Amino acid sequence: MSIIELEGIYTAYEGGDKPVIRGLSLSVNPGEYVVIGGPNSAGKTTLLESINGLVRITHGTASVCGLDLRRYGNEVRRKVGYVIQNFYFDPFTPFTVEEVVMMGRYGKMGLLNRPTRSDREAATEAIRLLGIEDLASKTIGTLSGGQQQKTMIAHNIAKEPEVLMLDEPFSNLDFNAREYLQGVFKSVAKKGTPVLLVSHAFDGLPDIRIHLVVMNKGRITYDGVCDAGEVESIIRKESGGGLRSSSF
Amino acid sequence: MVFASIACSILGVIISRMNLSSIGFTMSHAAFAGAAIGMFLEINPQMTAIFFSVAVAALIGPVSDKAKMAADATLGVLFAMSMAVAIFLVSYMQYSGRGLSAGSLLFGNVISLYREDIYALAAVSALTIIFVLTFYKEITSIMFNMKIAEASGVRVKLIYYILLFIVAISVSLTLNIVGGLLIFVLLVTPASIASQFCFNVRSMFIAAPLVALSISAFGVWAGFEYTLPIAPLVALLLTSVFGVSVLVSFKRRINYKKY
Q1: Given A178, A184, B9, B94, which residue has the most CB atoms within 10 angstroms?
Q2: Set of chain A residues whose Cβ sits within 8 Å of the Cβ of B152
Q3: Is residue B47 in a domain?
Q4: Which structural domain range is residue B33 located in?
Q5: Radius of gyration over every alpha carbon of chain A, rounded to an integer in angstroms
Q6: Tens digits of per-residue pLDDT, A27-71?
Q7: For residue B112, what is the DSSP state?
Q8: Partner-chain residue, chosen from A79, A96, A103, that has the shortest CB–CB distance to B200
Q9: Domain A4-247: which CATH class?
Q10: Measured between alpha carbons, how far is A248 from A236 in angstroms, rounded to an integer?
Q11: Do A54 and B201 lie within an 8 Å CB cutoff?
């Protein structure tokens, strides 16, 4: 059974004169490694935010983790990990890496509940998985962009999500870090949690079958399974006869 | 003054981190306008101050959401409206010979408090502490980043609206003591002083009320001892301490050793 089931969805931002996503249908199964590609303004981030209930779906049906997204947005967000695209933490941000990673579980815990031993263990395990143990007691604002990125990924992995979505998670990372993280995401997918990755960097993709989704102008132009090595060429082809230089 | 310091400084830690510092002067002027309405209508000004503040607080979140504006912009609009209402009524009463002086509303009056006022302020301090302790994980999550908190499934709007409500109540009850213009100092300055020295949010929640409490206590003592106006004195003392703390803060110091 699909863990994400979107059927003819439309989404629009308030004040927008046309929908950002138009009649999109997508099905994602447990354990899939989904790469979402396409030119800028294709609607990739909006798709992730729709799946997380942060952007309102105006038409169509959407079910995530067995819940009707249009009715249970907050419940869906408790089950879905989402690493957002742009964040900046100023040097005076008074939260340590350890605290930020633990915060990933706060929604899941529910109101009034305190972190338990299993919450602390999940946070510690996420920190270990991302290899940021030596940063645990540092305040997040004093870290480099790449270290902040890893912290935010750990924040979402600590949540033990049923779906993990990442929007440009490699933007601040060098090649080694990208390759390492691809391995982390592969291990997450292997445990049955689908990983949805929006990216413009395809080096170091894990050597597994990839569910590739290519978007253009709010629609899916390609939805199929391919090898990691084919991803970039298919995206180039499906993005409307070669990508403009600004797209990559 | 003790209870006002505790409540305002704890709330100040939250609002200054959320870039909502202007909520201080908006709410204080909403309370000021509410009190002016009470005086104009010849009913209990404290009750009207609370009522008007809560009404303004209730507008901030929904108006920002509906208008898709930053809360700061909404606060600016509501601040201007509150100030206009207050000045309009105060001026009108002066022209019509009802002789209202805005002085007590602007600068407060620490020495003419009733027992009920003190009980109400104690209750607000307790409410603030209970609020922070009960929703500590949600509050810290929102203070870290509102969008990330929402994406994690934290009930951001619920906590945000409760926070606005508590700020409204605290400000309107504190109006009697430090006055509308100076509440802002208690809301913002202790938290700003704490932020110069504290590396984590837990210590800020402890340091800010301690700073506010000790400086307020000293201000009250000095005011009585040397017959000085207490509320402005406390505001000046807090601002001076903030100035010194910016100069001596070790947080911006570069701490590396040359090996």
Answers
A1: B9
A2: 77-78, 103-104, 106-108, 155, 159
A3: yes
A4: 2-243
A5: 18
A6: 999 999 999 999 988 899 999 999 998 888 889 999 999 999 888
A7: G
A8: A96
A9: alpha beta
A10: 10
A11: no
